[in-house]
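Quick one:
INPUT:
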Protein backbone atom coordinates (compact mmCIF):
# COMPACT_ATOMS: atom_id res chain seq x y z
CA UNK A 1 0.00 0.00 0.00
CA UNK A 2 1.90 3.02 -1.31
CA UNK A 3 2.97 5.42 1.44
CA UNK A 4 1.12 3.60 4.24
CA UNK A 5 2.82 1.44 6.88
CA UNK A 6 0.96 -0.51 9.54
CA UNK A 7 2.68 -0.17 12.92
CA UNK A 8 0.54 -2.80 14.64
CA UNK A 9 -2.78 -2.54 16.48
CA UNK A 10 -4.31 0.75 15.22
CA UNK A 11 -1.01 2.45 14.46
CA UNK A 12 -0.06 3.74 11.01
CA UNK A 13 2.63 5.83 9.40
CA UNK A 14 1.70 7.78 6.26
CA UNK A 15 4.38 9.32 4.08
CA UNK A 16 3.67 12.47 2.07
CA UNK A 17 6.88 13.50 0.39
CA UNK A 18 9.23 14.57 3.17
CA UNK A 19 6.42 14.75 5.74
CA UNK A 20 5.34 11.96 8.05
CA UNK A 21 1.87 11.54 9.57
CA UNK A 22 1.55 9.01 12.38
CA UNK A 23 -1.69 7.68 13.86
CA UNK A 24 -1.98 6.00 17.28
CA UNK A 25 1.71 5.02 17.70
CA UNK A 26 2.27 2.22 20.22
CA UNK A 27 5.17 -0.13 20.95
CA UNK A 28 7.19 1.27 18.10
CA UNK A 29 10.18 -0.78 17.01
CA UNK A 30 11.16 1.70 14.30
CA UNK A 31 10.41 5.19 15.68
CA UNK A 32 10.68 7.93 13.08
CA UNK A 33 10.11 11.67 13.57
CA UNK A 34 6.53 12.75 12.90
CA UNK A 35 5.33 16.08 11.57
CA UNK A 36 1.70 15.34 12.46
CA UNK A 37 0.28 12.86 14.96
CA UNK A 38 -3.40 11.90 15.14
CA UNK A 39 -4.65 10.27 18.35
CA UNK A 40 -8.06 8.58 18.42
CA UNK A 41 -8.52 8.14 22.19
CA UNK A 42 -6.78 7.89 25.53
CA UNK A 43 -6.35 4.12 25.89
CA UNK A 44 -2.65 3.39 26.37
CA UNK A 45 -2.46 1.31 23.19
CA UNK A 46 -3.50 4.41 21.23
CA UNK A 47 -2.11 7.28 23.30
CA UNK A 48 1.30 6.15 24.47
CA UNK A 49 3.40 8.95 26.01
CA UNK A 50 6.54 6.82 25.77
CA UNK A 51 6.11 6.34 22.04
CA UNK A 52 5.12 9.94 21.45
CA UNK A 53 8.31 11.07 23.17
CA UNK A 54 10.29 9.03 20.65
CA UNK A 55 8.72 10.58 17.53
CA UNK A 56 7.65 14.10 18.54
CA UNK A 57 9.72 17.26 18.55
CA UNK A 58 9.09 20.96 18.96
CA UNK A 59 7.80 21.19 15.37
CA UNK A 60 5.35 18.27 15.69
CA UNK A 61 1.62 18.95 15.71
CA UNK A 62 -0.71 16.61 17.64
CA UNK A 63 -4.46 16.28 17.09
CA UNK A 64 -6.30 14.50 19.89
CA UNK A 65 -9.80 14.27 21.40
CA UNK A 66 -10.86 16.62 24.14
CA UNK A 67 -9.67 15.32 27.47
CA UNK A 68 -6.34 14.04 26.17
CA UNK A 69 -4.54 17.38 26.19
CA UNK A 70 -2.85 16.93 29.57
CA UNK A 71 -1.27 13.65 28.52
CA UNK A 72 0.51 15.29 25.59
CA UNK A 73 1.14 18.75 27.03
CA UNK A 74 4.59 17.92 28.40
CA UNK A 75 5.86 17.10 24.92
CA UNK A 76 5.91 20.80 24.05
CA UNK A 77 4.13 20.26 20.74
CA UNK A 78 1.35 22.27 19.19
CA UNK A 79 -1.89 20.53 20.16
CA UNK A 80 -5.34 20.68 18.58
CA UNK A 81 -8.18 19.38 20.74
CA UNK A 82 -11.11 17.99 18.73
CA UNK A 83 -14.48 16.30 19.04
CA UNK A 84 -16.59 14.26 16.59
CA UNK A 85 -18.12 16.30 13.78
CA UNK A 86 -15.37 18.92 13.64
CA UNK A 87 -13.41 19.84 10.53
CA UNK A 88 -10.07 21.60 10.54
CA UNK A 89 -6.91 22.09 8.50
CA UNK A 90 -3.58 21.09 10.01
CA UNK A 91 -0.26 21.69 8.25
CA UNK A 92 -2.28 22.14 5.08
CA UNK A 93 -4.11 18.82 5.43
CA UNK A 94 -7.93 18.90 5.55
CA UNK A 95 -9.08 16.77 8.49
CA UNK A 96 -12.60 15.58 9.32
CA UNK A 97 -13.15 14.22 12.83
CA UNK A 98 -15.51 11.24 12.82
CA UNK A 99 -17.46 9.37 15.45
CA UNK A 100 -16.00 6.16 16.89
CA UNK A 101 -17.84 4.17 19.56
CA UNK A 102 -19.20 0.80 20.62
CA UNK A 103 -22.77 -0.42 20.45
CA UNK A 104 -23.56 -2.91 23.19
CA UNK A 105 -19.99 -2.94 24.54
CA UNK A 106 -18.51 -1.05 27.47
CA UNK A 107 -15.07 -0.24 26.08
CA UNK A 108 -15.74 2.85 23.96
CA UNK A 109 -19.04 4.52 24.94
CA UNK A 110 -20.42 7.17 22.62
CA UNK A 111 -20.63 9.65 25.50
CA UNK A 112 -16.83 9.80 25.78
CA UNK A 113 -16.54 11.24 22.25
CA UNK A 114 -13.61 9.20 21.05
CA UNK A 115 -12.84 9.77 17.40
CA UNK A 116 -11.68 8.60 14.01
CA UNK A 117 -10.34 10.79 11.22
CA UNK A 118 -10.61 11.38 7.50
CA UNK A 119 -7.44 13.14 6.36
CA UNK A 120 -6.72 14.19 2.79
CA UNK A 121 -3.12 13.45 1.81
CA UNK A 122 -1.90 14.04 -1.72
CA UNK A 123 -5.46 14.08 -3.08
CA UNK A 124 -6.30 10.77 -1.37
CA UNK A 125 -8.90 10.70 1.42
CA UNK A 126 -7.76 8.29 4.15
CA UNK A 127 -10.24 7.20 6.83
CA UNK A 128 -8.90 5.84 10.11
CA UNK A 129 -12.00 4.54 11.85
CA UNK A 130 -10.58 4.42 15.37
CA UNK A 131 -11.88 1.88 17.88
CA UNK A 132 -15.45 1.59 16.72
CA UNK A 133 -18.28 -0.74 15.93
CA UNK A 134 -20.39 -0.52 12.80
CA UNK A 135 -22.20 2.75 13.52
CA UNK A 136 -24.82 4.82 11.66
CA UNK A 137 -22.42 7.74 11.18
CA UNK A 138 -20.34 5.63 8.81
CA UNK A 139 -23.01 6.23 6.18
CA UNK A 140 -21.64 9.78 5.88
CA UNK A 141 -17.97 8.80 5.46
CA UNK A 142 -16.44 9.09 2.01
CA UNK A 143 -12.87 8.04 1.41
CA UNK A 144 -10.46 6.41 -1.00
CA UNK A 145 -8.68 4.28 1.61
CA UNK A 146 -10.31 2.94 4.78
CA UNK A 147 -8.27 1.67 7.73
CA UNK A 148 -10.82 -0.49 9.53
CA UNK A 149 -10.71 -2.54 12.76
CA UNK A 150 -11.69 -6.17 12.22
CA UNK A 151 -10.71 -8.08 15.35
CA UNK A 152 -13.92 -7.91 17.36
CA UNK A 153 -14.08 -7.82 21.19
CA UNK A 154 -13.16 -4.12 21.48
CA UNK A 155 -14.28 -3.09 17.98
CA UNK A 156 -16.37 -4.34 15.10
CA UNK A 157 -15.60 -7.83 13.86
CA UNK A 158 -14.85 -9.03 10.33
CA UNK A 159 -18.48 -9.37 9.27
CA UNK A 160 -19.29 -5.87 10.52
CA UNK A 161 -16.23 -4.53 8.73
CA UNK A 162 -17.51 -6.05 5.48
CA UNK A 163 -20.81 -4.23 6.01
CA UNK A 164 -18.92 -1.02 6.77
CA UNK A 165 -17.09 -1.33 3.46
CA UNK A 166 -20.43 -1.68 1.67
CA UNK A 167 -21.61 1.54 3.31
CA UNK A 168 -18.44 3.59 2.84
CA UNK A 169 -17.54 2.48 -0.72
CA UNK A 170 -13.77 2.98 -0.48
CA UNK A 171 -11.42 2.01 -3.27
CA UNK A 172 -9.14 0.15 -0.87
CA UNK A 173 -9.16 -1.16 2.70
CA UNK A 174 -6.43 -2.08 5.18
CA UNK A 175 -7.63 -4.22 8.12
CA UNK A 176 -6.29 -3.17 11.52
CA UNK A 177 -6.78 -3.89 15.23
CA UNK A 178 -6.09 -7.59 14.88
CA UNK A 179 -3.24 -9.83 15.97
CA UNK A 180 -2.71 -8.28 19.39
CA UNK A 181 -5.43 -8.44 22.02
CA UNK A 182 -8.24 -9.49 19.71
CA UNK A 183 -8.62 -11.18 16.36
CA UNK A 184 -6.10 -12.76 14.05
CA UNK A 185 -5.03 -13.05 10.45
CA UNK A 186 -8.14 -15.11 9.75
CA UNK A 187 -10.28 -12.04 10.48
CA UNK A 188 -8.31 -9.89 8.03
CA UNK A 189 -8.58 -12.66 5.44
CA UNK A 190 -12.34 -12.93 6.00
CA UNK A 191 -12.67 -9.23 5.20
CA UNK A 192 -10.50 -9.62 2.11
CA UNK A 193 -12.55 -12.54 0.87
CA UNK A 194 -15.94 -11.02 1.69
CA UNK A 195 -15.45 -7.44 0.55
CA UNK A 196 -17.72 -6.09 -2.20
CA UNK A 197 -16.49 -6.40 -5.77
CA UNK A 198 -14.17 -3.64 -6.84
CA UNK A 199 -12.71 -2.99 -3.38
CA UNK A 200 -9.06 -3.92 -2.89
CA UNK A 201 -8.34 -5.28 0.61
CA UNK A 202 -4.65 -5.20 1.44
CA UNK A 203 -3.40 -7.15 4.46
CA UNK A 204 -0.24 -5.39 5.57
CA UNK A 205 2.53 -6.96 7.60
CA UNK A 206 2.93 -4.97 10.78
CA UNK A 207 6.17 -3.17 11.56
CA UNK A 208 6.26 -3.90 15.27
CA UNK A 209 8.31 -5.88 17.76
Amino acid sequence: MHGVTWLGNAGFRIRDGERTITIDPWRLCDPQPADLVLITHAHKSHLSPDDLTRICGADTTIVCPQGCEQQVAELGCRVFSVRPGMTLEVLGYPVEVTYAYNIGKRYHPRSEQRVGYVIEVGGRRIYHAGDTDLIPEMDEVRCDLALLPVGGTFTMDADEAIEAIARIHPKAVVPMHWGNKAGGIEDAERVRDGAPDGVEVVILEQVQS
